[in-house]
What we know:
The chain has 2 domains: 3-254 and 267-341, Fumarase C, Chain A, domain 2 (Up-down Bundle); 350-410, Ribonucleotide Reductase Protein R1, domain 1 (Orthogonal Bundle). The chain has helices at residues 8-13, 16-36, 42-48, 55-65, 68-80, 93-129, 149-174, 191-201, 216-242, 271-292, 303-331, 337-345, 353-362, 367-384, 388-393, 396-401, 404-410, 414-417, 420-427; strands at residues 134-139, 142-148, 176-177, 204-205, 250-251, 334-335. The chain is mainly alpha-helical. 65% of the residues lie in helices and 5% in strands.
Amino acid sequence: MIDRYSRPAMKQVWSDENKYQKWLDVELAVSEAWAEEGVIPEADIVLLRKAKYDYNRMMEIFETTRHDVTAFLTSITESIGPEGRWLHLGMTSNDMLDTAQAMQMVQAGQLLIIEVDKAIEALATQALRHKNTVMMGRTHGVHAEPITFGLKMALWWDEMRRQRVRLIDACDGIRVGKISGAVGTHATIPPWVEERVCDHLGLKVAPVSNQIIQRDRHAHFVTTLALVAASLEKFATEIRGLQRTEIHEVEEPFGSGQTGSSSMPHKRNPELAERICGLARLIRGNSVTAMENVALWGERDISHSSAERIILPDSCLALDYILSIFTGIITDLRVLDDKMWSNVESSRGLIFSQQVLLSLVDKGLSREDSYKIVQRNAMKSWDEGDDFRILLKSDPDALAALSVDEMEKLFDYGYYTKHIDDTFQRIGLK
């Protein structure tokens, strides 16, 4: 991921420094387990505990070996001496690589959960603040019936809580290590050594493996990141729509001196929300690659490795970044409640069509006849710009069933918001 979209903490998780330290942590944990077995002498394990890798030397060796694990191990053993022979004992490369990578993914997941929590908190604040802020609900982009902006925020809050549960589950699914040898048979390294190593590293043991930890776990992790990103894209798309000039019910933060357009000084574009949408697409694309990595030849091939070097860090970095952006947008969102109300009123009473329909049915008219009465007045309001409420009051068929006073009682915006408190109570938002 480019620096522009990389935040320091997540960048550190996926740094070479952290990766190689995790490699060393795994190798030393295995050596400690062998020492407990009595295989590695006490004097040698004391020396091994001081082992360090040499990055520059590692890169030099890599130019010859073209194998990063052997280059890594050689850079260590060169500085230790003959005791270095105990490193990597009974292991295959992916015992170390997959176990270390799992530790990185767990680290990344923990950071993402923190950012999800921040987003949830920001949404809760706005939901409660605007619980009773009436706005137009839209279906198919067309005015439907009133809702409140707080209800919209509550819906997003509830969705992000579900995403948090999914993310925790995905992190738990990848929290496994594998120290089972070349093809997972434990022929060269017994199961109890694997168990000690994983316990020491804070991981569960993969119950069964071949040469690698199975990639359905990784696919679950990345697709979960994509699902979280999909929600953020959904929210950001709505913010973009509500910021359109002709709607103009919200505005994302726009700083003093900020430039919206190089040529049009008046522009205040929803560029943060647009950035969320763009990077969400990137993560979604990576999830397809993660699923394609599940199917490998036999006990393993290397086709997944090159892809994972990109999709794992980039997906984590991108999601971390857009979560932070989203929280900032929601926290400092400008909510134009006056414009929301004027947009509601701009419907000329059309939003009460269902209320009138139900009342006519209640008066004994068939649903079909009731629908025809309401629709013909609604279409006239659409086409000629007349107020729907006034048209109804002059419609003989409507007046035959409903008095003017009865109609007036139907034109009450409070009807649509009377259960908002119940919904908030149901989801536990208070």
